């Protein structure tokens, strides 16, 4: 703009210049005329000289103007020069910007390389850490074995000494009555010591086994890691680096095609086998056809089909619960935990569940309904069932949604409906129908508790004759308190023959000739019967503990065994638990303190003294759990100077009301809080925050909370019953080897019994902080994973399948 303005001014100046020149011409003319004036008058000359004067003045002013313009022109020229300089600078800057941009691009590439290096590095760290853990575990077990060996030596030399004294005593035996008594006493002692010797031999053996297993595991992992780092995987190696979710999704895709009749059952079988073996070819094909049409995908998959034979077992769990999607209690944890552990050991595991409306759908991945229905029989008619598939915790799950007018699983709750017997006998039959219609050939069908106990008689009476005959049936009873008895006529709805089954040696309940008992049926009709801990397996074989089934169990004792449950150490891991304020582990307990502080703050409890012991309790509030002792523990812990947090709810109205009363009483108390609800996230925070954990059960088939508590460094105070007796060992009981001592146990289910254990726990906590820390570290390092229980199940399955194959005609 400025340049335009200056241009304009230059033009005006040029015009002015022309005008000045014209005027100067005129002036010259006039001067000429003045020198030789015309003959006209003097007046004219005067006028002319006046005009000349005026012109002179005008001329002067114009000259001034020209000067001013000239100087302005100079300044404009200066500005132009500056503009040129600035333009040069600008282009210089632009080229350096370009330079910088290219440098930025290079450094961005470097950053992305760096981040992938970082992930690789952190992967390697995790592997190294897990190796370190394995090594630590193996070393610990070796140390424990050495300890037990030493004790054993000790016992041996003591026994030898006693035997010597016994010999000596024998010499004087006849001579004195006193010596006789002494002898008897010694005999008793010898027996006791021999017993302990035997026990410790067994312990040593189990430790040596454990140690060997750990070493083997360690070496295997080491080998695998070595191989991984030394080679690119050849084509015939299985694909090990894809998550279980991926394989389960693939499996369900094949199942879907089979059920939708898009592929035949033999092809489906072969494809499933390949998925099961994590075959690289099926993986590569899947990647190739991922974005293609379903038809193309199917034909690419079918090209792969060959019939390899497999080493592993094909196990189908039919259950009413599975954590975390449909969990009421321990059953849900077992189905998921055992399923995952078996899957890791190379078996093909599938789960069949009802499709409840109140499930946690956000924990199911890739849920979709199949484009087909499965019809199943009930009350004399055929009903359609919609089949949904999805993966839960990496396991493939089929969900059955009955199209029955009673809307069996649209009740807003899992159990507690008037027609539970109908709901679950319907489901049991529909699940078998699904297996039959999809042409599956499982090796093991594993059913759980009374809800799916119907599977056992249905299988042998109806489905084996229809061709679903490849399987052995395993039944696990998680709690003999719940047997699901009903009037005999109800049994007919799912197609079972009431006349055949309502007999004392079959499903008839011991209480009445007109009632049937599904649990009894499953005990009789299954090939394998298990319960969830060795002690409970003993207890239920007595008339006090068997809830009417002790004689059935005793007459089927050959196939009945107790296997202690494990816990899912992935979900229950304080080192990675996303629900916690701070993660922690046995080597770094700082986070535990932080969780205690955070929970106290969250619940409005006093944080004044960090060393005030916090007692936790997470439970269903039912008589089995010793509710009167839980109530007593709240008051006693308070008297002893502790804090108490209870998380639980009750399906029993009067118990729920009673605890609501206590909740009100302590509503804004500094040291006690009751939370009468089910809350998964809060349960994690309580395990992590508490110093002690109370489980005063009247009976406890297995119990998971004591194991979870220990994994989070909370010391259990438990009654010696069932699985508690198999997992909590008193630290003041010197008949128990020190390496096993891990908590406080009491025998009698009364207030004195509980006080005894609670008070000792408080004393230990207050007396020696350092010792308590060591105890926490110890309990956190105990291996409660499913690994060893899954191995026991695997052995049972394998033995049963082998037996069936050896004599195919037996059932
Ligand atoms: N109110 C609750 N909120 C959250 N989790 C709970 C609650 N009550 C029980 N649990 C969980 O349920 C499981 C209980 O298993 P277990 O000890 O075998 O008892 P049971 O199966 O007899 O209920 C544990 O995982 C425990 O954390």
From TrEMBL:
EC numbers on record = 2.4.1.21
Q: Has keyword Glycosyltransferase?
A: yes
Domain of life, per lineage:
Eukaryota
Q: Which Gene3D superfamilies match?
A: Glycogen Phosphorylase B (3.40.50.2000)
Q: Where are the transmembrane segments?
A: none
Where does the record place a coiled coil?
A: 13-103, 176-231
Enumerate the HAMAP family for this protein.
Answer: Glycogen_synth
The entry's protein name is: starch synthase
Q: Which GO terms describe its cellular component?
A: chloroplast
Per its UniProt record, what Pfam families does this chain match? Glyco_trans_1_4, Glyco_transf_5
Keyword Endoplasmic reticulum assigned to the entry: answer is no
The record's annotation in SUPFAM superfamilies points to: UDP-Glycosyltransferase/glycogen phosphorylase
Q: Which UniProt keywords apply?
A: Coiled coil, Glycosyltransferase, Starch biosynthesis, Transferase, Transit peptide
Q: Where is the Starch synthase catalytic domain?
A: 315-554
- Which transformation does this protein catalyse, written as a reaction? [(1->4)-alpha-D-glucosyl](n) + ADP-alpha-D-glucose = [(1->4)-alpha-D-glucosyl](n+1) + ADP + H(+)
Position of the signal peptide = none
- CDD domains, from UniProt? GT5_Glycogen_synthase_DULL1-like (cd03791)
Against InterPro entries, the record matches this protein to:
GS/SS, Starch_synth_cat_dom
Q: Name one GO biological process term.
A: starch biosynthetic process
Name the pathway it acts in.
Answer: Glycan biosynthesis; starch biosynthesis
């Amino acid at each position: 703009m400025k340049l335009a303005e200056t241009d304009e001014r230059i033009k005006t100046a040029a015009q002015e210049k022309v005008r000045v020149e014209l005027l100067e011409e005129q002036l010259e003319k006039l001067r000429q005329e003045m020198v030789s004036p015309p003959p006209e008058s003097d007046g004219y000359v005067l006028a002319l000289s006046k005009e000349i004067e005026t012109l002179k003045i005008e001329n002067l002013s114009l000259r001034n103007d020209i000067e001013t313009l000239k100087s302005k022109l100079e300044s404009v020229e200066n500005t132009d020069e500056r503009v040129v300089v600035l333009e040069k600078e600008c282009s210089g800057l632009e080229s350096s910007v370009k330079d910088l941009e290219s440098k930025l691009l290079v450094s961005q590439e470097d950053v992305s390389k760096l981040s992938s290096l970082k992930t690789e590095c952190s992967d390697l760290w995790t592997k190294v850490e897990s190796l370190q853990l394995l090594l630590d575990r193996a070393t610990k077990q070796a140390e424990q074995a050495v300890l037990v060996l030493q004790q054993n030596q000790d016992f041996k030399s003591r026994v030898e000494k006693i035997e010597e004294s016994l010999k000596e005593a024998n010499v004087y035996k006849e001579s004195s009555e006193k010596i006789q008594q002494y002898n008897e006493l010694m005999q008793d002692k010898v027996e006791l010591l021999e017993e302990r010797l035997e026990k410790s031999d067994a312990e040593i053996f189990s430790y040596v086994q454990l140690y060997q297993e750990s070493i083997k595991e360690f070496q295997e992992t080491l080998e695998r890691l070595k191989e991984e780092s030394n080679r690119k995987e050849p084509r015939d190696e299985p694909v090990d680096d894809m998550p279980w979710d991926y394989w389960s999704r693939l499996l369900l895709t094949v199942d879907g095609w089979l059920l939708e009749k898009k592929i035949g059952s033999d092809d489906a079988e072969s494809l499933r086998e390949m998925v099961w073996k994590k075959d690289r070819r099926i993986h590569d094909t899947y990647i190739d056809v991922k974005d293609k049409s379903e038809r193309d995908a199917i034909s690419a998959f079918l090209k792969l089909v060959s019939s390899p034979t497999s080493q592993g077992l094909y196990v189908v769990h039919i259950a009413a619960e599975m954590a975390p999607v449909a969990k009421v209690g321990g059953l849900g944890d077992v189905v998921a935990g055992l399923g995952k552990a078996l899957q890791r050991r190379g078996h093909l595991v599938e789960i069949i569940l009802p499709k409840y409306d109140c499930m946690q759908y956000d924990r199911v991945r890739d849920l979709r309904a199949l484009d087909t229905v499965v019809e199943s029989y009930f009350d004399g008619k055929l009903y359609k069932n919609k089949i949904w598939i999805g993966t839960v915790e990496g396991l493939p799950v089929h969900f059955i949604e009955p199209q029955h007018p009673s809307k069996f699983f649209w009740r807003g709750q899992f159990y507690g409906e008037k027609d539970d017997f109908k709901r679950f006998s319907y489901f049991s039959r529909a699940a078998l129908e699904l297996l039959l219609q999809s042409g599956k050939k499982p090796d093991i069908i594993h059913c759980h508790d009374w809800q799916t106990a119907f599977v056992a008689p249905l299988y042998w009476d109806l489905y084996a004759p229809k061709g679903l005959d490849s399987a052995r049936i395993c039944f696990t009873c998680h709690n003999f308190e719940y047997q699901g008895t009903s009037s005999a006529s109800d049994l007919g709805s799912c197609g079972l023959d009431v006349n055949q089954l309502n007999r004392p040696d079959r499903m008839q309940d011991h209480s009445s000739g007109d009632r049937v008992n599904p649990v009894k049926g499953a005990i009789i009709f299954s090939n394998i019967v298990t319960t969830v801990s060795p002690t409970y397996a003993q207890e239920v074989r007595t008339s006090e503990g068997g809830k009417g089934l002790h004689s059935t169990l005793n007459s089927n004792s050959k196939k009945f065994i107790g296997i202690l449950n494990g816990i899912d150490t992935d979900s229950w891991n304080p080192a990675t638990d996303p629900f916690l304020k701070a993660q922690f582990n046995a080597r770094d307990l700082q986070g535990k303190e932080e969780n205690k502080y955070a929970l106290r703050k969250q619940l409005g409890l006093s944080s004044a003294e960090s060393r005030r012991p916090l007692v936790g309790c997470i439970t269903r509030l039912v008589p089995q759990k010793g509710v009167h002792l839980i109530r007593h523990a709240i008051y006693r812990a308070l008297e002893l100077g502790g804090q108490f947090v209870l998380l639980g709810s009750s399906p029993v109205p009067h118990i729920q009301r009673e605890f609501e009363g206590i909740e009100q009483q302590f509503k804004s108390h500094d040291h006690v809080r009751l939370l009468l609800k089910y809350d998964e996230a809060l349960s994690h925070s309580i395990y992590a925050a508490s110093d002690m954990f109370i489980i005063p059960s009247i009976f406890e088939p297995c119990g998971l909370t004591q194991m979870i508590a220990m994994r989070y460094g909370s010391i259990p105070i438990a009654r010696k019953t069932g699985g508690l007796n198999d997992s909590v060992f008193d630290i003041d009981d010197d008949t128990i080897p020190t390496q096993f001592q891990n908590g406080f146990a009491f025998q009698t289910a009364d207030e004195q019994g509980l006080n005894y254990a609670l008070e000792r726990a408080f004393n230990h906590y207050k007396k020696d902080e350092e010792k308590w820390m060591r105890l926490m570290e110890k309990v956190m390092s105990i291996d409660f994973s499913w690994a060893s229980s899954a191995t026991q199940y695997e052995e049972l399955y394998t033995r049963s399948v082998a037996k069936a194959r050896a004599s195919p005609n037996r059932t």
